[in-house]
Amino acid sequence: MFAPILFGLDTFGDASVDDRGNPVSHAKTIRDLVAQAQLADSLGLYGFGIGEHHREDFAVSAPDTVLAGMATVTENIRLGTAVTILSTDDPVRVYERFATLQALSNGRAEISVGRGSYVESFELFGYRAEDAFQLFEERLDLFAQLLTQLPVTWQGATRASLKDTRVWPQLETKLPMRIAVGGSPQSAERAAKLGAPLALSVISGDPTRFADYVATYRAGLSLHGWAQRQVSVHGPGYIAATDGQAIDEYWPYYDASYGRISRERGQTHIDYDYFVREVEEGALYVGSAETVAGKIARTVDALGVDRFDFKYSAGPMPHSASMRNIEAYAREVSPAVNQLLSRDQAQAQLVG
Fold first, then answer.
1. How many CB atoms lie within 10 A of CB 169?
2. pTM of the full predicted structure?
3. Residue 214 sits in a domain of what CATH number?
4. Which residues pair with 177 in a beta bridge?
5. How many domains does the chain have?
6. pLDDT in tens, 166-208
7. Sign of the CA dihedral 235, 236, 242, 243?
8. pLDDT per position as a tens digit, 84-132
9. Has residue 227 been placed in a domain?
């Protein structure tokens, strides 16, 4: 029997503009995020994730605080991160904040943890980017132990040791933790060893190249004695009436966000031609509702994932455009994806 895919949203809380292109304050951008979550909740979407950044072009540096505000004005949608940079945060404080969010949301919190692809938090909080792997490994180990709710005895090189320690508040219900994977198969193996759900972040290139990661992860779960867990994939995109309109409208936002970051990193090839190739062949889900639904369905089928998280905003996109993108994704794209997948599965069964 066909199991419908779960559909979520992700945003990094990019600094926004109004409908005339004038910059709005970070504070206004954050308040608009709450309204966007309310819309997503009313449309029945599964989850809403917020990224963590520490730069002027992003309004959100404390996603758990924004999620707490959302928890008080939504009812059903799950509230999480995309991602929490565990490498430069303290696992005890992360646990305390998300246990509090879990209480406020009545059990709707989730957390995705990763090393982080931006380096600003390392210098800001007194760490070295070259220590990212060790920092993440140790903090993930401690955080996973804290989630068990048992007294923790832990020792490492990157923070103070703990002995028979419990932290508060205690959880009424389990706090789901996803491991975010962006380019390292070792991360998939790590998630399998912990029995944690896997969240694939695909922002460039052919998404199907991650099929081996999923296979490694699912095999690892079996090897370590875990039941199969949720696998999700995150992809950026934009929906409009036609493919051409979507490309024309999304390009300036993409260039101001991904293009800017790429130029800062010396990747000068991220230009308009590259952007169009990503739309046509790569990881950008840009086009009409029909086009975007077809591309999501192909990704889901190729990777064998259970959930798709649509990064609906990028760069200085106005609040009104973000709201339209959310609505089109929920009302037009999501049901079309499940119809395509259900049809393909039925046809496969007939052939078989």
1. 11
2. 0.96
3. 3.20.20.30
4. 111
5. 1
6. 999 999 999 999 999 987 788 899 999 999 999 999 888 999 9
7. negative
8. 999 999 999 999 999 999 999 999 999 999 987 788 999 999 999 999 9
9. yes
